[in-house]
Amino acid sequence: MVLRITRPLVLTAALFAASCSFIDESLMPALTGDDASAQAQPVAIAPSDAEKNPDPTLSAAGAPPAGAVGAPPALGTTNFVTPGVTMAPNTGTFVGQKVAVLRSELGALQERLKLRNQQLQQIRTTTIGNSQTYHGTIAAINTRLQVGTTPGNPVLINQWNQGQLQLERIGADISSMNSLANAVASDSSMSAYLLESTRAAYGLSGAIEEDHRQLAILEDETNRTVVLVDRLLNELSEDISRQTAYVGNERSNLTTLSHSIKNGELLGSSLASRAFLAPAPVASSSPVIGARTQNFASGSRQPLVVIRFDRPDVPYEQALYTAVNRTLQGRPQSVFDVVAISPIQGGAASVALSQSKATRNAQRVLRSLTDMGLPASRISLSASSSAQAATSEVHIYVR
User: Fold this and answer.
1) What is the pLDDT of residues 42-79, one digit of tens each?
2) N- to C-terminal Cα distance for the chain?
3) What are phi and psi of 67, to 5 degrees?
4) Longest Cα pair distance anywhere in the chain, in angstroms?
5) How many domains does the chain have?
6) Which domain holds residue 349?
7) Is the Cβ–Cβ distance between 394 and 338 less than 8 Å?
8) 204 and 112 in one domain?
9) Per the domain annotation, does 43 fall within a domain?
10) pTM reported for the whole predicted model
């Protein structure tokens, strides 16, 4: 079901500035019996406070709140704290030595994650400061344009140039986020490797009970580290997606604002920011592109793509990009549903683990879609289960 949003048009009256500071009453008919020439006296009009202010600004109380139209998008606020590594004496067995090596590698990984978290918090602080400075500059320009000013006002041109530089600083912050996301992606691969190695160590011969006890503790801490890395990647991906869309819209708004300065009157935000406010109606289903038909996940709908995670590192991104790209070429307003499908096999603990794995895979696919440039607002994430599925799957549907 597509919800069509309409907005009433708001007509704003233009403010006209007088080209002179007096009114000559000799140009108006006399309403008394006195001589009109005796009444023709200049009337002085005092300048307003806004006209006397050489550099008007907008106070913090008047700034738009976070999430409102014209405000910067909210950044994530999570402080990612590593679970730590429990130290234990080496038992001297072959398996005990293996546990010691894995414990050391996990400790090194968590130290890197602490550094990544510090970098993330610093980037967020810098981005917030740059955004506030940028919006203060733009607010000053809009305030001057709203009360009326001369076409091509050099003061506003200088402020516009400052705003453009400040927006580029926000773009540089996005580049820093992308670099950090690449580093965290490498840590994600390392954490997955450590988890698989820890689980494989249970099958090694020559272990004593203490070795398996330490392995159980190490597996738990490694698994929590994997979850931490996934959450860090998800939050970074969301921040990058929102900030990238925001900077793109603001660049369009700066172009419109430049035209406003040239004319000396406020026009409003760029029309490009309204591109997705009223999408065209779309059908409830779509043809399958290179995917098998399965109806258990979403009624009678056929999935656009089915990704089966039956082995590590499934190469799905190229096929996913091709399918989504073809869909958008034919239906540019399409919205995509990403559904995590987990099998119903084994006991309650096994089913819970399968659901957790399917959810992580679906989040990975969602990150891939946003990295491909698909707006996060046009992607929904959900989960389901099926007795027909033999392994974790992710289905993508089109609305």
Assistant:
1) 445 455 454 454 444 333 333 444 444 456 778 888 88
2) 8
3) 95, -15
4) 122
5) 2
6) 305-398
7) yes
8) yes
9) no
10) 0.63
